[in-house]
Amino acid sequence: MNTFLLKSLLTGLFLVGCLSLSLAQPVVSNIRTDYTADRMKITYDVQKLTEQDSVYLQIASRTKGLLKIRTVTGDVGRNLSSGTNKVIYWDFALDGFTMGDEAIQPIVGVKEAPRKQTIGRGPLSALASIAVPGLGNMLVHRKVGYRPLITVAYGGLLVYGFLERQKANEQYDRYMSEPYERDATPYYDAANQHRKRYMNAFRGAGLILAADVIYSVIKGVQNDRLRRTASQRITVQYFGNTPILAYHLTF
């Protein structure tokens, strides 16, 4: 059962990562075409587009491959916004083509502008987590987000642990002050219960601290590696309605 849950968790995290990746990329959909005697009208929808991204049109022929087209107007190029019913016109007659029986496929794609990548600090940020758990995590990511909850959880467990230890000491003192074992036993049992609670609380706080420090070191090393080596990313581009993974390498 534990193995199944672990696999399910990892699969879920992978799917969430893929979903967040796809949600960040421009999406072209719902491509339609219409013809006149000398012009093709291509209508499409696009989402997640920035003004720096560039929309382009390609025409694929079943026998000739990609055609060399020149006379293209409408919603192409940069400085476009997301929306529906975007229109591109291709004057195929001016480019020397005729629309015969040959099957052709319009391809509307988006060339993404480089997204600014924020790289957090290095592994020494883990020292900040030793002082304040969660702080190193903020530094390696350069964002706050949910990370103050780490500090709250760590501090809450410590406070709870100290309170339970105080109660354990009080119950043990009462146990020692009782002259008869029969009357003293309940205090001894209560002291043991409080002791178990504060020990578990301190262990939990220690695990939170250790996990935060280790993660901050690992993430910090990755950040340093990103600064020293090439920047790599995978994006999702759309050719027509078909998603294509694109690998980018920038030195």
Biggest β-sheet: strands ordered side by side in the sheet = 1-2-6-5
- What summary fits the major beta sheet? 4 strands, antiparallel
CA-CA gap between termini: 45 Å
Number of strands: 9
* String of helices and strands: HEEEEEEEHHHHEE
Q: How does the helix and strand content classify structurally?
A: alpha+beta
Number of domains: 2
Low-pLDDT runs: 4-23
The total count of helices amounts to: 5
**What portion of the residues fall into strands of 2 or more residues?**
25-35%
The percent of residues in helical segments reads 40-55%
Summed over residues and divided by their number, the pLDDT gives a mean of: 81
Shape: rod-shaped
**What is the radius of gyration?**
31 Å
Short description:
This protein has five helices and nine strands, in the order H-E-E-E-E-E-E-E-H-H-H-H-E-E. By secondary structure, the chain is an alpha+beta fold.
